[in-house]
Design goal:
This protein starts with a helix and ends in an 18-residue tail after the last helix. It has helices spanning 5-19, 27-43, 70-76. Helix 1 crosses helix 2 (27-43). The chain contains three helices and no strands. With 94 residues, the chain is mainly α.
Length: 94
């Protein structure tokens, strides 16, 4: 779920404060920088790429691309079988 503007700014200002070593008395500067960053990102249009007919559209963010879960990929993996006893192949036709 997306954060509200104030929540995003609060989290970003806190991160800026931590990055600078948690200095005292700079909260207004951090808040203002976070607000400017939010505005810059919010006004920036999504990046578009040119594509040919039939191409799959490019997502605006890699975060939206779903990756296969471990369960699904494990279920599709080929099943390994142990070799037959004493390394012999089973007789043909049986």
């Amino acid at each position: 779920m997306a954060d509200s503007e104030d929540d995003w700014i609060k989290k970003r200002a806190y991160a800026l404060w931590e990055e600078e070593g948690k200095p005292h008395g700079k909260n207004a500067e951090h808040w203002e920088q976070a607000r400017r960053e939010y505005s810059a990102f919010a006004l920036k249009p999504a990046r578009r790429t040119s594509r040919k007919a039939g191409d799959v559209p490019v997502e605006a963010s890699e975060a939206t691309v779903r990756k296969p879960s471990a369960k699904k990929s494990a279920a599709k993996a080929p099943i390994e079988t142990s070799p037959s006893p004493r390394g012999k192949k089973p007789p043909a036709g049986r």
